[in-house]
Specification:
The complex is a heterodimer of chains A (120) and B (107). Chain A is mainly beta and 120 residues long. Chain A is built from no helices and eleven strands. In chain A, the strands form two sheets. In chain A, strands 2, 4, 5, 6, 9, 10 and 11 form a seven-stranded mixed β-sheet that branches. A four-stranded antiparallel β-sheet of chain A has the order 1-3-8-7, with no helix packed on it. The radius of gyration of chain A is 14 Å and the shape is globular. Chain B has 107 residues and is mainly β. In chain B, 0% of the residues lie in helices and 48% in strands. In chain B, strands 2-10-9-4-5-6 form a six-stranded mixed β-sheet, with no helix packed on it. A four-stranded antiparallel β-sheet of chain B has the order 1-3-8-7, with no helix packed on it. Classes of the chains: A mainly beta (120), B mainly beta (107).
């Protein structure tokens, strides 16, 4: 069974940093691109960042470019999101999501999410 | 960036109804579109990808169609568990944007 489990969320002050993790199991983690998607309270979904299987291709939403860094450790089957210079509008539930294999792109498995709160 | 506009934003329907949600892209994306269902407090769940391919395990009452700039998600014979929020997402290129969502509520 494919499982994605996020951790690392919490309360942080504006300007602070936080590192999110996502542990994958039940599939060949090193073969899949991975994504972070967030959802502010009461709002819709916002794609944040993507990383290819071997970390060759990395993309970010403009809203986080230069502040967030996506990375992965395939040996540890883990995905990360380093978040710096956090702002109030970064407050959200952050989901990690696997991109399905093949040329028909989709986010086929999602974790349960981890909440990031930004407040002084 | 490609913008996705869903309509309606809120849809009221009854159990057993057939409903359709539309997603329009600001430029052509071929069939690189997915639909997700999100229940309150839960993670999104993939329903449809490549505009019309049903994800494994998703009931056949869900269907998708369209290409280019206009796409639809149809749910036949609504069940109580279908009342949720639905999002479209394009995966044509980066950034991978989502529509603003359609909340399907019980009439």
């Amino acid at each position: 069974e494919v499982q994605l489990v996020e951790s690392g969320g919490g309360l942080v002050k504006p300007g602070g940093s936080l590192r999110l993790s996502c542990a994958g199991s039940g599939f060949s983690f090193s073969s899949f691109s991975m994504n972070w998607v967030r959802q502010a309270p009461g709002k819709g979904l916002e794609w944040v960042a993507s990383i290819s299987a071997a970390s060759v291709y990395i993309n970010y939403a403009d809203s986080v470019k230069g502040r967030f860094t996506i990375s992965r450790d395939n040996d540890k089957k883990s995905l990360f999101l380093q978040m710096n210079s956090l702002r109030a509008d970064d407050m959200a539930v952050y989901y990690c999501a696997r991109e399905g294999s093949g040329y028909l792109r989709r986010l086929d498995y999602w974790g349960q999410g981890t909440l990031v709160a930004v407040s002084s | 960036d490609i913008q996705l506009t869903q309509s309606p934003s809120v849809l009221s329907a009854s159990v057993g109804d057939r409903v359709t949600i539309t997603c329009r892209a600001s430029q052509g994306i071929s069939t690189s579109l997915a639909w997700y269902q999100q229940r309150p407090g839960k993670a999104p769940k993939l329903l449809i990808y490549a505009a019309s391919t049903l994800q494994s395990g998703v009931p056949s009452r869900f269907g998708g169609s369209g290409s280019g700039t206009e796409f639809t998600l149809t749910v036949n014979s609504l069940q109580p568990e279908d009342f949720a929020t639905y999002y479209c997402q394009h995966l044509n290129d980066y950034p991978l944007t989502f529509g603003q969502g359609t909340r399907l509520e019980i009439k």
